[in-house]
Amino acid sequence: MLGKVVIVGVGLIGGSFALALRQAGAARQIVGMERSPEALNRALALGIVDSITTSAQEALEGADLVLLAAPVAQTGPILAALLPWLEPGTVVTDAGSTKGDVVAVARATLGARIGQFVPAHPIAGRESNGPDAALADLYRGKKVVITPLPENAPGDVGLVAAAWRLCGALVHTLTPGQHDDVFAAVSHLPHLLAYALVDDIARKPHAGLLFQYAASGFRDFTRIAGSSPEMWRDISLANRDALLGELDAYLSQLTALRAKLAAGDGPGLEAVYANAQRARRAWSEAIETAEPPPRQNQES
Amino acid sequence: MLGKVVIVGVGLIGGSFALALRQAGAARQIVGMERSPEALNRALALGIVDSITTSAQEALEGADLVLLAAPVAQTGPILAALLPWLEPGTVVTDAGSTKGDVVAVARATLGARIGQFVPAHPIAGRESNGPDAALADLYRGKKVVITPLPENAPGDVGLVAAAWRLCGALVHTLTPGQHDDVFAAVSHLPHLLAYALVDDIARKPHAGLLFQYAASGFRDFTRIAGSSPEMWRDISLANRDALLGELDAYLSQLTALRAKLAAGDGPGLEAVYANAQRARRAWSEAIETAEPPPRQNQES
Q1: Which CATH number applies to B178-262?
Q2: Of the candidates B172, B226, B234, which has its C-beta nearest A277's C-beta?
Q3: B85-109 burial by CB neighbour count: b if 16+ within 10 A, else e?
Q4: Per-residue pLDDT tens for A59-99?
């Protein structure tokens, strides 16, 4: 049972965390704090939080846990605003899609208090945003990656893990660097590739004709290109080095595949396609089926 | 109302065509013909066809319409086997995913009888195959692209169009070259890109770790990499020139995007992502919503 929990940013991610804790009866008090008075009032009206404030001092008084769920670019300014009122026993965590940049900003801002910051990333989402998009079961059966720092006390890491488990999530642990490498490959690169394909088609003179015949294969391949351009610009830049590495590996792969295609090398093409089909089936059987059924318009 | 219809290849595509015509009460007699006795007997047992044969002579006697629904690579041998028994009043059509190569093979095989061949491509499918995968409503609300030849009589093109409309399909017309250019961009390239990504990840030393964190974005992006490697090898080679053109355009696009990323050009990245998001939303609203709800595991 948690005492006072502060949610900074009461949109989809923060709001869903709050709703899940409430549903589990796991927090004595949940306070919402953020820049937008509209979002704050809406979160209160929807019963996502018990109270709202724009004052860091009021929010942090006696807080056990603070979740940063605002856009990642605001992490520094938010931590700077919280720092003067941050009590020694309060644990701060976040929900950002990249970890190396968040840790760097947190170190620069919190200085000697960095041990109170436990970075994390819930692997769940939807295409819609704001308090109205929040769902109590958004995290049920989903992974949350915690990337502890050497300065974190084990009990503080345990508190963050326990809070996510109360939301129904499966807690995993990676280093911030491992996290960013992994998500560059399985999430950030696919987003860039999907955006690139749709933009490429849209700029062709006969784009209208092309889109007319785009069907279910195109729909699924490009679903993630419906995601927020601002958010993915920030993620791309925040994880630039790892993403460039993955992109270069993929460009080499495409160049090799182009040579096979140009040479009419049927067995060579089939070997790549068959290896991909096998690997995807193995992934689907081992990983995907362990997750709850897909929610429409979900992203991650 | 059609008289005798011959389905060459009683799997998903041919079987669904037969079931749809039967459901519409649109054919007097449907005959199944193909290499596999197991598939033939299964199609008969499932009530997909009225009778089965391995004899081209028996199948073609008095036939009004013949649908070729075997793998595209068999088009030449099948047409050669049919030609001696092909009556002057019989119309032959196909369901291949590429059209330029099919037309070339048909011209070479049928010679002066090429006017009896009306090429077509139904834009529908599933990941499963064989007679048991056939569905009477597979084509309902889906597009079928007919690519008529200069030698085709308008009435013969009309017969093929009418048969597909009886299956609930929306009939479109393109030239074979237009067809192959369009599908290189919106279908064949995305398949190649999805296969390439999964193969790329699967070959990395830490592939197991990467796949563990692949989530819904990866799932949708790579769903088409679950498709048949043999079929997509054949499609890639059959439409090689158009596919190479689209792949080169995409490689240029990725190279430009890589430069923006390397330069930390946030506005440049966001412009590409935002244009893609806008275009995909417009596509989704104009095209996707006009189609019936998605079937799981569908491909096209």
Answers
A1: 1.10.3660.10
A2: B226
A3: ebeeebbbbbbbbbbbbbbebbeeb
A4: 999 999 999 999 888 999 999 999 999 999 999 999 999 99
Residues of B in contact with A230 (CB under 8 A): 270
Considering only CB atoms, A244 lies closest to which of B216, B236, B261, namely B261
In the stretch 230-289 of chain B, residues with CB closer than 8 A to chain A read 230, 232-234, 236-237, 240, 243-244, 247-251, 253-255, 257-258, 261-262, 264, 266, 269-270, 272-284, 286-288
Angle B133-B138-B143 from CA coordinates, rounded to 5°: 140
Smallest Cβ distance to A254: which of B145, B196, B233?
Answer: B196
Residue with tokens 């330069």: B263
Nearest chain A Cα distance for residue B227, angstroms: 7
Tens of pLDDT along A219-235?
999 999 999 999 999 99
Confidence of residue B96 (pLDDT cuts 50, 70, 90): very high
Two structure tokens written together for A269: 């093409």
Please tell me which residue of chain B has the smallest CA distance to A224.
Answer: B217
Residue B190, number of CB atoms within 10 A of its CB: 26
Report CA A223 to chain centroid distance, whole Å. Answer: 17
B199 shares contact with chain A (CB less than 8 Å):
yes
Listing DSSP states for B267-283 in one string gives: HHHHHHHHHHHHHHHHH
Q: What are the CA-CA distances from residue A103 to residues A201, A248, B15, B261 (Å)?
A: 37, 26, 58, 21
Of B209, B221, B270, the CB nearest to A190: B221
B233 vs A269: CB contact, 8 Å cut-off? yes
Q: Which amino acid is at B298?
A: Q
The burial class, CB within 10 Å (0-12 / 13-18 / 19+), for B205 is exposed
**CATH for the B2-174 domain, from 1.10.10.60, 3.40.1550.10, 3.30.565.10, 3.40.50.720:** 3.40.50.720
Query: Given CB atoms, is A207 within the 8 Å cutoff of chain B?
Result: yes
Nearest residue in chain B measured CA to CA from A225: B277
Name the token pair of A80. 């700077």
Q: Are A260 and A272 in contact (CB under 8 A)?
A: yes
Instruction: Name the residue in chain A with its Cα closest to that of B172.
Output: A213
Least confident of A120-124, A284-288, B48-52, B157-161: A284-288
Residues 24-83 of A with CB under 8 A from B: none
Q: ipTM of the predicted structure?
A: 0.90
What pTM was estimated for this model as a whole? 0.90
Domain boundaries, chain B: 2-174, 178-262
The tokens describing B20, both together, are 């749809």
Multiple choice CATH, A178-290, 2.170.270.10, 2.120.10.30, 1.10.3210.10, 1.10.3660.10:
1.10.3660.10
Burial (CB count <10 Å: 0-12, 13-18, 19+), residue A257: buried
- Name residues whose C-beta falls within 8 Å of residue B175's C-beta, 6 or more positions apart in sequence: B147
Q: How many helices (H) and strands (E) does chain B have?
A: 13, 9
